[in-house]
């Protein structure tokens, strides 16, 4: 009986043990084996297989059957493997001179090892050598036949291993239809076989209609160029937009030298600099690190090209756009056109003289009207009088307590010095001037006895006029600390500031309170240089009182935190400067408004004093930061013209001690000279 | 609170009474009208201010009834961008659009079109779901499409406006021309090819009309700047390499932009080609196209066609207008191949001399401005050959744009490497094998530097195997930056010299063209001599002037002492100018004193910017010094 062509010659005589020995164990083969096992009961006929195999062998070139060719499906069954040791590691036999036992129990000797040279020579000589495989299990060389190689190749290609076998044979029907007497069914043909379908007709009609009307088109419309002259009539049509201004996107930044593929050396950061970028915040880090390639061919593709393009796209449609004005001007053009400082000379420039002698910080200085004598009061409790031109100390008073304020009587015939010490105000006779003047002064300073009785009636509680015994003069005893003394221009009245403002009259030895309500603690008070007006500054504002009419004229809003000092323009043109503890200097033009005309932020620390020059258009401010500023402050008689303020010079030189700098400043009455008193116990004279 | 001891009861009652009282009070309080919300608008009153003018994005979406992707696409196509309201009434983190912009989008026909397309897609999907593939395919083949020309006209009413915004467009198109087609990102091959074509058309126009002004090889790619109708247009082309695609890029957005840009560039190209009487879209020599020498084929096309159309227009002007129209129609309907044949007939194949002749012909009667004329003649007498390894596309664009004749290694090139007339060969390799003595072997950077300097630079530094001199950006104003690199100064000197002493060069160059190197060297020598001579002359002039002044004084009988004092005054002036720094510091301090806070802030900010700039310049100088000191020992 012949095996049908469709079935492969199956030969699974091999027992389970042998199967395990198989080295080829891919999944595919495993599956095949399973299939084969299933068919076993049907087709297992070992006798029939043998002749089949013999037939194949006849076809093949090599008649010899190699028992060791286990890999091939067909020849597995022919001979059992010579070695019977089973599936044990060959390592066990490494040291033996045999590799196992034959079926009869004889030892199988190991073959002598060929040395490499011999085996190489053998390969050279033998053309069939590439087909030889060493079988370690049986310790012999096996030559694979050509047919087997063909099979292996087919297996590798995933085909049926045997070339003769057609996996898809034509189907042979088991039943013969041709000469059958009776049909299988005798039913008549259905109606639909010969009657035309209404639905189909409908469908056809629909399609025809569609085609006729052009709903259905079979060939695609011919593609025409979609482009034409879009901006043909450029000049005529300027279509209006939708009302909103179009803001064009800003153009991307053009590349600089550093982006070049071959930049100059100076654009390439060193390794340390690159490392230091790592320490920076991410947003500060430079986005692009220049690199250098010594030839164009070495430049690689830029890795961020797509990313950057995408970012640009995002910017274009996601970023809100606004128009921003960016001024591109020279910063120097911001500076106002001021007259050159050379043209504004003379003004104090350099330190010319130093008056040394005080042991503590010089708190207050005052210059006599003649400009010949300078008085100074210090923290060490002394008042000194200096000769201005020589720097000689003329006289010293030891008062024992820190001197708060010194002020010369503004009348040149009365060389009287008012000194504020603690709660007292002393009126001292300086002993200057000729005999006649001395007589007058002494008279003024002597008639104190009646006043003491006199002031019992209304102002005893505040002030008592006493004769000072030690230094011939008058002592006004107050209830509280006196901080400043200011003379009226006629030399008869003087105002003092303790937490209240008092006005004393020297000739009558009378003291009176000012008849106004003060809002807040007074800081300083000044008489107007020509009119009967009193300026009293509190911490926030300056109040201007008319002394004759006894009423408030003006309230100047400084807008600063704490006023420290005040000075009036000597020309009587209602210009006032106010210095503040935050370092701001306010210039008020009272004709203009009660707000400052100009605020100068010059000092980083408290302004201690401000001063006007009597005749020159100069004013100065001194501060705890150890500097004094000199300004040109021109006031024009023309009311339409605003005062001109030009900063002129910063005078440095005083050393700062105990957190205080320059304590006081005052101008020379005739010369453009400035005296400054420092906390370093030195008085300096700055000349032009 | 139900369990209470009896002792506490009375007290509890009073507590309860109090509680009730509080409750009543609270109720009384409650009966008052409820507290107003912060931004309460009474009914019937319209919105005012920012809330009326702006709307957030989510509100806009709701108003337009479209999805976010569609809104995004519309915004991109219409050029609508968010605007910043003075007060962000719904919070800082939201995007605000102007209400007018939103109504502008609302009336866009494209919005309706998008809806149609969406409905149509649903139809297709339905057919697919029912396995009705023929229907699906038929539907797909007739999918509704939209055009963007109206939008372009709307966004750019004038051609100039379009040119002004062309930078991003060109950069994007050139980038996509270099990208690979990625199916996963929906970048079809067709779009890439279209981008390539458009970019080549643009380059061909620029090159043919000599509009290119500056170029710069950067790490990011090659920058070009052209001047078209007075507009400076800068674009970036990536290096001809495999581009890197990153994940963090949303290609949908980019493709939407690209869609608009492609259309825009096509219309711009049309208009530009129209202005030089060349038909658009151009039909290219398929053989050259296949060889990827698109540009060259485009050049050929442009030059040939412009000439033909010019001749034609002349003919037309003589005949009556009707005939002209017929003729034009005839041209339009002409088969492309016929036209090509004609083109080939007009143009002796692969004859660069003839080509150049044609270019000259075409350009001769145009009214060019001076700069264009200068650009046109930069490489006039040079025949340049490109080796395999140099970036061919860029150089093929660049060299003809400046009037040079160029060829390359490969099929379809106008002349071969062995051509005797070649003056320069561009190579980019460490050593050169076979060397023709008649030509110079230079690195590609030479071409770019020449273009930027607008003179033919000496090739000495750019020879094969050398590290070329630094490549500088032409977009930087060195004076404004405050730092002039060394090589920029060298180029400046060469330029100045070329303008004066170098004038007779071209004549001599034509005489012995074989050895331009020696000539250039001569030129350099003569330049240095010239600069020295100029210096001398200046000194002599000064002396002479002094002498004349003295003479004049004598004539005016000014006493000698007065003159002296005058001189002294001059001297003093000089001395006074010396402590200028100190003076300036004082001035600054004074300025700070007198000015308002606003001005002070502005001034300070400016000073800060200045200082930053100075710091950068100082850093550069320091690095330079270091590099030099490292080199010298």
From TrEMBL, chain A:
Its main location: nucleus. It comes from the Eukaryota. Residues 1-88 are annotated as: Disordered. Residues 29-42 have a biased composition (Basic and acidic residues). Residues 93-348 form the BOP1 N-terminal domain. One of its GO terms (molecular function) is ribonucleoprotein complex binding. PROSITE patterns: WD_REPEATS_1, WD_REPEATS_2, WD_REPEATS_REGION. WD repeats lie at residues 355-396. One of its GO terms (biological process) is maturation of 5.8S rRNA from tricistronic rRNA transcript (SSU-rRNA, 5.8S rRNA, LSU-rRNA). GO terms for cellular component: nucleoplasm; PeBoW complex; preribosome, large subunit precursor. Required for maturation of ribosomal RNAs and formation of the large ribosomal subunit. Belongs to the WD repeat BOP1/ERB1 family. PANTHER family: RIBOSOME BIOGENESIS PROTEIN BOP1 (PTHR17605:SF0), RIBOSOME BIOGENESIS PROTEIN BOP1 BLOCK OF PROLIFERATION 1 PROTEIN (PTHR17605). This is Ribosome biogenesis protein BOP1 homolog. It comes from Macleaya cordata (Five-seeded plume-poppy).
UniProtKB/TrEMBL annotation, chain B:
One of its GO terms (cellular component) is nucleoplasm. This is Pescadillo homolog. PANTHER family: PESCADILLO - RELATED, PESCADILLO HOMOLOG. GO terms for biological process: maturation of 5.8S rRNA from tricistronic rRNA transcript (SSU-rRNA, 5.8S rRNA, LSU-rRNA); maturation of LSU-rRNA from tricistronic rRNA transcript (SSU-rRNA, 5.8S rRNA, LSU-rRNA). It comes from the Eukaryota. Residues 374-464 form the BRCT domain. Residues 608-633 have a biased composition (Basic and acidic residues). Pfam families: Pescadillo_N. Residues 34-55, 603-633 are annotated as: Disordered. Residues 35-44 have a biased composition (Basic residues). GO terms for molecular function: ribonucleoprotein complex binding; RNA binding. The keyword rRNA processing applies. Required for maturation of ribosomal RNAs and formation of the large ribosomal subunit.
